[in-house]
Amino acid sequence: MILLNNNFEILDYNEYNNEFPITIFNLEENYSEYNPALFIDFKNDINYSISCIKKLICLEKKNINFSSDYNNFHFKYVIKNYNDDIIKSLQAINIKDTKEKYTFIYDYIFSCLDSIWKEKNPCNFCNNLCIATRNKKYIQQDDGCCYSFEYTDKLFSKSFITNKKKCKYLGINKQCTTQNLSCKFFTCPYLKKYENFDLKMSDYPIIESFFSKKQKLILKYNFFHSKDEIISKLLEKDSTPFLFYYYKSKYRIK
Ligand code: SF4
Ligand code: SF4
After folding, report:
1. What is the extent of the structural domain holding 232?
2. Which residues have CB under 6 Å of ligand 1?
């Protein structure tokens, strides 16, 4: 049994013995307002899981309820062929406040990526020089790529970046003092080419399910900013057409 929130539980289908009624999930179905707990087979399929989570988000917005009581527990979902990402998605659906929901998802993804970086340690710092610098590829500087910069708008400039300096969030102990998801998703050309190390948002159905195309740009391209700034940007309402939003870099935090 898995805790969904303060009121409801999720049951693994392997523990279900027909003790209470369930509603079989169907992507095309229109459900009535009150229904028994929802049974969903996520089929270990990322694309199908994203469709299921998107449908569940719509059902929650329409206040369609699913619940079955058994042994003093209130079950909302009975699930099969799932992973941690799906559990976190179900928990996120049931958080009403949008800022709290985004923070929950952000923290979850950050902790997944942080574990990967810590376990694989691809940058392999030695005397404050990362592997790309030590091998004289991609960059030549201490502290790896923790340098903030701006894009120049001068037409005939030799470089397209300007105002380069150490990122203000780099602590004295060389640890990052904020939790920046864009930085966590960034892998330099050296890591991609020589260490075969890359991280993709599309591997996380929870991002694909909860965030729009504009919000994914916000998550991907806001290096050198704090977690709070990124969450606030995610909450911004912007009706600009996507292409204009993209070309005008409106996803960047000013
Ligand atoms: S991502 Fe690449 S450039 Fe940045 S610290 Fe790691 S090895 Fe160095
Ligand atoms: S915000 Fe990014 S660039 Fe700045 S210290 Fe943290 S990881 Fe490095």
Report:
1. 99-247
2. 123, 130-132, 138-139, 144-145, 187-188, 190-191
Question: How much distance in Å is there from the Cα of 186 to the middle of ligand 1?
Answer: 9
Query: Which ligand lies nearest to the CA atom of residue 222 in the structure?
Result: 2
User: Rounded to an integer, what distance in angstroms lies between the CA atom of residue 181 and that of residue 102?
Assistant: 12
Q: What is the mean pLDDT of residues 115-138?
A: 93
> How many angstroms is it from 105 CA to the middle of ligand 1?
26
What's the rounded Cα separation, in Å, for the pair 236 and 233?
5
Q: Is 178 in the pocket of ligand 2 (CB under 6 A)?
A: yes
Decide if pLDDT at 30 tops 80. yes
What confidence tens digit (pLDDT) does each residue in 38-70 have? Answer: 999 999 999 999 999 999 999 999 999 999 999
3-state secondary structure of 124: coil
Distance from the CA of 185 to the center of ligand 2, in angstroms?
11
Residues 110-125, mean pLDDT to the nearest whole number:
97
Pairwise CA distance, residues 78 & 18, whole Å: 11
The last residue of one of the domains, among 64, 94, 124, is 94
Q: Pick from 50, 41, 80: which is nearest to 202 by CA?
A: 50
Q: Tally the domains of the chain.
A: 2
Under 8 Å between Cβ of 123 and 199: no
